[in-house]
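Session log. Operator J.P. requested a structure for one protein chain; no other inputs attached. Running the standard single-chain path with token output.
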Amino acid sequence: MRLLTQTWLLASISAGAFALLEERFISFEANTAEFAQLSITDAPILVSQDDFVGVHIAANSLAKDLEDITGIARQVTNVTGLASISSSLPSTPVIIAGSLNSSLIRDLVSQKALDVSNLIGKWESFQTATIHLPGSTSQQTALVITGSDKRGTIFGIHTLASQSGQSPYHWFADVPAQHHPALFALNKTTHHGEPSVKYRGLFINDEEPALNSWWSRRHNATRYPLNTEFYSHVFDLLLRLKANYLWPAMWKSYTPPPGNIFFTDDPLNQQLANDYGIVISTAHHEPMQRATNEWNETLTGKWDWSKNKENITRFFEEGITRAGNNESYFTIGMRGLGDEAANTANAIPMLKEVFSVQRSIFKKHFGKEDAVNQVWALYKEVASYYDAGLNPPEDITLLFPDDNQGNVYRLPSGKEEVGRKGGTGVYFHFEYVGLPRSYKWHNSNNLPKVLKELGHAYERGARQIWIMNVGDIKPMELPLQLAMDLAWNGTGITFEGLPGYLVEYAAREFGGDQAEEIGEVLMEHSRLVGMRRYEHVTLGTYSTVHYREAERVLERWEELARRVGEIKGKLEEKYHAAFFQLVGHPVLSGARFHRVAIKTALNYRFALERRNSANLLAEEVRQTFEDAYDLVEEWDAMSDGKWADMMSQAVYDAVEEPKMWANPSRDILTNLSYVQLRQHMQFSLGNLGLYAEGSDSPVQQGRWSESVDASMPTTNFAPLLPQMDPYGPATRHIDVFHRGDHRVPLSWALDELPVPWLTITPAQGVVNATHPDQRLTISIDWAAVPAEFNATLSVGIRSTPARYSYFDQIKIPVLNFFPPPTLDGFPEAGGGYISVEGPHFTPVSTGLSSVSFQNISHLGTRSQSGSLAIRPFIPARENLDRTKSQKAIAPIYLFSDAPDLTVTVYINAGLDTDPKLKMEYSLTLDDQPANFTRVLGQYVENPHAGAIPPEWMDQVADQVWTKKVRLGPVGEGRHEIVWRVNSPEVYLEKIVVDTGKGALKPSYLGPPQTARVTATEAWKGRGRGKGKGRRFGKWSGKGKGYGQGRGSWSPLDQDEED
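Structure written below.
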């Protein structure tokens, strides 16, 4: 895959294709074999004088862009038609940009120099063509960008800039123009559009403490309005992303009140939006082009329709009057102030009356009730009114929200909803302030998940509006880019193509040399944040005991941070600021955040184990906490302070505080633990501690009774490793650590190993004040292990000095059973569990069905290989019986009877978007009949979140739904786990089979996938295991917690049930 990506990238870069998802029409090299070239390196720009204001704004931006790229200034000339083109213009090629109805384009069409038939009647589309100007004696040539309308033309102009080397984020992320000494237009005609989604844009929201503070600081003020200076940058960004729609900033504030008001903070804001070509709407709770902050209860009374209808109606009409003929999309309906439900017990009758009044205002001002675009946002409690039968006139757009956590709540179903005159759309969150916890510090959006949810919206026909809640805009640049690209071309990005898309994005922003590496970093960052959003991570999220889960997560973050440092060292200095904003800061701050969280959790465990290293870890956490703020100060100093305060929001928080949903107001560091370094451990236990992976032995030794707990060697709570076998992890580890007076170094050494095929490294060492821990790695040469070996090995360890002669034993259970040589599947591992990722199920097609299970690449955080879902999407929805008949199987093999087989199922999070097709799954064993069960329970009303499934509060932050299926007692041998679904919106990430023998341990991500054997492996003719075998001794124990509890060890040479 990496080689294919690299080959594709090199071809793309050499062709100069830096405009994502667009057919290229610009090159940097002349005389290519593919097309003749037209040099536009210094070409002047011609625009019709009678064209839209926005076209002129874009043309002047283009002149600046091309100067940044080539170093050559050029003029923008306004002309009234072909006849007015000055003879003083050079005979070299020119760039012409115009909409269909501009005089210049009309002249070119009338003289048959330009064919625009493909643009007639199109929405926001454009074409590029190279032509000879008619009537030119010198055969003057031109690159002509023609738009079907105002925005189509603007998009064409900005696409030329992007393909030439100017990023849409040239201002919002300080991405420098890529220098090219020459630019050439390919001698061909290209067609672009129509967009997949008609209105697409962003919502500036939750502006405190970042956006407002940043903008005010830029102007040396306590509070500075978001005026035309600010919005000109926003509008420019939107258009360069081929977006056209905005919900402006609107958050309430008490310092000073009332907060942001787009329409009055600068009275020119609305006109500027219209000039640029941006359609202005208002948030879901701000009807009729009025900001909530404009309502003054002191002057106009309560926001209560039943008691204050006259004043509220006047308020509505003033908004429509003020909007005038500016291009608008009017939000209708009425909610409570402050994003709350309306203060009424009869919401549906009230809303019917509100709709009627609002429609009468439209008729009064525009001639007809349906003369203007109107949208009703079904947000939170409003969705329940629609579900209860409140259905506005069909020309009104229905805007379906997500659940504020990235799971779309509802999508159109049935012909009536899909075919509405006003269409349907989606309101989607990239950040949020509210229950169960806010998340807005950094980009924590898993890109494949975003692709899944928005892809569903496109497939299901929600294509009228896509509005993305991006908070402060920064640092949501990447998910916003992805969403707008999908809105422009709904099928242009696939799951398997997502890594390549990120490479292309990186090449556009930072050039081609490091693009592949940066693309990989962005993809891995997306996987890591997709596990859990920053603000939702607690000290207990990742297991510090089982499956090395916390360590593995942190290792991935640390490796990502290391790669960022390497890349920065290779990038030209001009890219450093942009790289820090778009890649460096997201990764480095994320790595430090997780280092604090995970190492604080490890510090607590180490303290319970009485490790001296707990103190070192506490100091490391404290230093990382300080280092994290270094990133804030580095950000504030970047680009001469341009973005100071934008990333100053606090994120380090306590596990439990009042008002947990809200953002912390200041960073705090809590829950650090220390041991007394000068104190000896109880002498009967000794100063040398042993931690066996997954064991709670040293924690249990943290409290000790000499009269009850035997030691030297430890028998109760011995350092017992999880079972080692060929199907689980290749290595296990033991930590040897100092837990006594740190001034006294300890030497330790292992006894001779009991078998030649066991390796433990190192075999001896010293722990002291500066290096209080050593990790031992245990591995096994499975080719040398006797077949059907089933025993627990004991390895002695000794240490000096010691007040009482120190001796303990490490316990290593080893099992070397083999399934039949014909098995192609997953044998039992680790003493009693099997973990299988969804894409490693085998689809079994039934009949000649056109639908089947497919691997959905990269989607999933409990899986490294993606998810499993049924496809194609629409056919799978159209024939329920056909879809439910499809199955995928995972062959498993049990080495002994399972007393109670239970399967944990991890399903990628999503909601029931179709009330007529609620998500169901069936997981059965062998030839059992299908047993379809709803993924989610019956929805319940939450006063702050609307209707949600009962699992939502506890599991939505997990990014997966976790389900348990009990299959009961199952005999040894081969079996098949059978998976079925009723909908293409059910995505299986992973299953974990628990045989009921106590081997499966609690963890957030679940154990990594266990080994799969194939039928082609001969297994060296060693047969199969039956659940019994020769032991070197017997370990019997019981208990729970950090590991196996009380038990005893006896050196018996006998057969024993495992």
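Operator note: The chain has 24 helices and 41 strands.
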